[in-house]
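Proteins fold reproducibly. Next comes an illustrative record:
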Amino acid sequence: MSTAKPKYLPHGEFHAALERRMRAHFAALGHGPAERTGMVLKTGIILAWFALSYGLLMFRAEHAWQAAVCAVSLGLSIAGIGFSVMHDGSHGAYPLGRAGNAVSALCLDFIGGSSYVWRWKHTVFHHSHPNVVGSDADIDIRPFCRIAPAQPLRPAHRFQHLYIWFLYAFLALKWVAIAFGLYVLFVLVMRGLNARSR
């Protein structure tokens, strides 16, 4: 990752036109970007889907095929929580104020991730420099894939649309490995501090 901060041009006519169109769009709809009823309904449906899938998997699935169907449904509902509920909450998109957004962002902790790490990695670092090579860690998955034109092109990248989905399955393992590494580092530092204090 580069330490040099990218420089951006000041907002111009494109930005002004985009703002005008966005305001006109929401004025035509009759509400603002954070429409309460739809957001809350969407969240309720996704969380109910999760609870139903989990309940059926744990208490009703008697055969392997039933467990497999419930597990797939549970996995998709967890993805829905991450992509929709947690993501919207971490961006402050819910119309329920800071507390509602914080609770929505904490859904990531509920499904096994870290809303703290996500906030820094995605909301702060990615959205400060979106898709800027050297500044946005979200697009740095080299050498396996090429996400931006400024990244080096390798022959295997012609097929990345086929194998990237397989690699995404290992993303959770990467997060676990990083968390475990930080935990081990913390334990070693604490042991070192305790040894010095004796």
